[in-house]
Structures are given as C-alpha cells and as structure tokens.
Amino acid sequence: MAGGGSRRSSAYYRRIFGSRPPRVLLAKPGLDGHDRAIYVLAQALRDAGMEVIYAGLFTPPEEIVEIAVAEDVDVIGLSLLNGQHMTGFPKVVRILREMGRDDIAVVGGGTIPPQDRRALEDMGITGNFGPGTPIDDIVDHIWKRAAEARRRKLPAT
Amino acid sequence: MSLIDGIVRGDPASISRAITILESDPGGEAAGEIINSLRTSRGSAFVIGITGPPGVGKSTLIGRLCDELTSRGRTVSILAVDASSPFSGGAFLGNRIRMEEQLHRRGVFMRSMASRGSAGGLGESVWGAVRVLSAARSDYVVVETVGAGQSDVDVIGIADYVLVVVAPGFGDLVQALKAGMLEIADAFLVNKSDLPGADDLGRYLEEISGGRPVIMASAVDGRGIGELADALEAARGNAGTMRGERAAVAVRIALESLLRDEVKGLMEGTRARRMVADVAAGRISPHEAAERMLGARARENLGGAAERGRRAARRTHRPWHRPARP
Asked: Does residue A6 sit within a domain?
C-alpha cells in the first residue's frame, strides 16, 4: 500500500473523492480463464483505499459496460492474457463513447506487445501494463485516472 | 431526460447516479431533493434483508431467487452491502460474481455498497437507495449483508422481511446469530441442505424459531427456492400490517446506533480521561462518572442540539420514516 495510504489522506484526495472512495471495476472481456492477477491487483487496490468490483470471467464488453454503469465506477480495468486485447478493449471504449460516458476511464493490462500499446493509447485506453510491472505503478496509474473521471462525474460541490 | 424521469422510467444510468448522490452525502441538499421528488412517485417495493455468515451462499441464493421471482413476473433489484477495510477504507465487493449470470439474463439492477466505516450512515444510504429503486417500480428490493456486527442490524432494520441464512459447518450457530439477528429474523433458511449436519441445524432452528418458517434449501441445485419465493409473496401480500410493527424496531435500532456513536464521543477527550482516572483512584464510582459526563455533555450540547433540530426540521426527508402514499 506504498503510495496509496498517503495519497488517500491528502487534501487533494479528499477534495476530489470526498466520502466516496475511487470505485474500480475489474473485468476480462473475452475467453481467458486466467484471473489470478486480477485478484492480486484487486487486493492491492483495496489496500490502497479503493472499492473494487470484479465482474468475473468471460464477461462480454456490453455486460462490462452495463455493470460499470450500474455500479457508477470511475475506472474500468481490463485484462486479457490471450492476445484478444485489440478486439475486446476497444469495444468497451466504443460502447462507453456511444453512451456519452466520459466519466468512466478505461485502463488495460495483459500480454500486450509494444506496437499495440500505442494503438490502444490512441483510443483512450491507458496503462496497458505488461507482465512484471510493479503493482504500485498500476495502483498509481489507476488512482490518477480515477481522479480525472471523478471530476467529470459529479457537479463540483 | 431529468434524473427523476429517468428513475421512474427504470433507466439504469439514472438510478445509478441517484444512488451515487445519496451515498456520497445522504444528508445533503442534492440527496434531499431526490428523496423529496420521489415522494410523489408511485411504487412501493417490498424490501427483503438477507443476512448470514460469510460463505453460507447468500449471493448464489439471491441469484436463484432472482430467477424464481422474475419468472413469476416480479421485478427485482439488489443492493449488496459489504464491509470496507478498517485499515485502508477500501473494499472488495465480490458478490456480483456469484449471480452475474442471472442478473444479466433477467436484466436485474444490482448495486454493490461498501460500509465505509459508518454505522447509522450506512442505514441512511441504503434507505435512500431503496426509495430510488421503489420509484423505479421494483416489486422487490433484496438487500444482502454480511452477517457480522452491528452495522448489519442497522441495515437489516429497514427491511420489511428479514431472512437469516445459515449452513452446516459454520461453527457455533449461537455465534452466527448474535448481534440481534435472531431477534429481527422473519424466517430462517438452511442453505447447502444436502451436506451432513443440515437436518440437525434445521431441527435446532425449528426449536428456537418460535413458529417462524425454517426453509431447507440448496442454492446450487435449486431446492427450497420455490418455497422461499412462496413465503416472500405471502409476506408481501400483507406488508402493510407488518410495516407498523417493524417501524418500531427500525426506530429503536436507529436510536441505538446514534447513542453508540454518542458514547464513543463521550469516551474521548480530557473530561473522559479525568473521570477514568478518578474512578481508577477510587475517588468516585463508575456510575457517578457516567452521570457527570452525561450532565456536562447535556449542558454543552444545548446549543448544538437546537441547531441540529432546526436543520432536521428543514430537511425534507426523514430517514426511517416511510411517507404515506398519496
């Protein structure tokens, strides 16, 4: 919980998130049964002070967005280790865009080759962390994206 | 489309945003406006509280129950309350994984809520969310909680019907049912009833239930789910008479919750330390210390209490109070 704890108690955090911590939905938009890493990340995010919802395995993009809307999350974290990230990830972003939901950020991770990272980034899918990434880097990135999303979510009070 | 229109039409994004506002600042102006606008909307959901120790299969059971009730033509929404970590303030809200298939197939709205370390405040957030889902024409709102601790009793206190779920192999049942659960249960359900020990558990519950239903079920193979739905439909039929009785329990629970917070506050600060030292030295009795602390607090609070009262009177909604239908 390295950077998380200090960040959570900062004035910056309190101003943006108030009494409602960052909410993150973790999902795997495809045929990929590997979710050990999701659980490790879920625990790190929880320990950093976020509320984490996991959609479970094999969740189609439409359903991921449906859950994200019902839970009113700040960030969707997508993971695929099967090479389908160029189909699964963009579809989630497209549906969000069609719904006009710019208050939900999308972050990616998995076995993503360098040439795909740029393309995903251009679509607004950030992070795209590969194997071996220090978990604090991922937590910090999600934190940053959550703050951006939250500022668009609720009218300033 | 205004937020209120969206809620009444059952638009998930509107329902979701309203709940966000209500849970972000339950006593705030925006929350009060929503609750006030929804007052005139029709629709009154029957609120089922489902509680029991972690791991007894509540989420799986709720998925099954959703299938059963929706196939009978009822609309169902779910609020799943889970504990926040007392250390980080974060939470892992995992209930959805166990019922996602049914939720998606049946188009059921579900929202996960973290307890966020609050006692009475959580009850207020859940109460507000129930109002929103009622206005969205849910016949049933299912509130799932982890059967551990006082905040649970607070939340469950706002339900019209409380189901306590147990399963064989979860240790001492008396432990599982403490913290007021036994008192507020309307029915008991023995899940995983195919496992050894289930019949003994059922018999024991029959003995202590005082005539309340004990349902033997298995969320995995569907046994007992029909019986549970029958019991709920029957209870929903005479919800009106039950609400009066339950309201008294709900108000008492809310009062207890506020008083507990008050006691916590009284035990902090220099006066408390002085009193504790006096008691330790044998100068005064614990009872006298308590009376002095209460007396001092009452004098201090006269100003503050009056302000709180004025604010409460200004506030448009009254937690725990169900407005009479127009």
From this structure: no
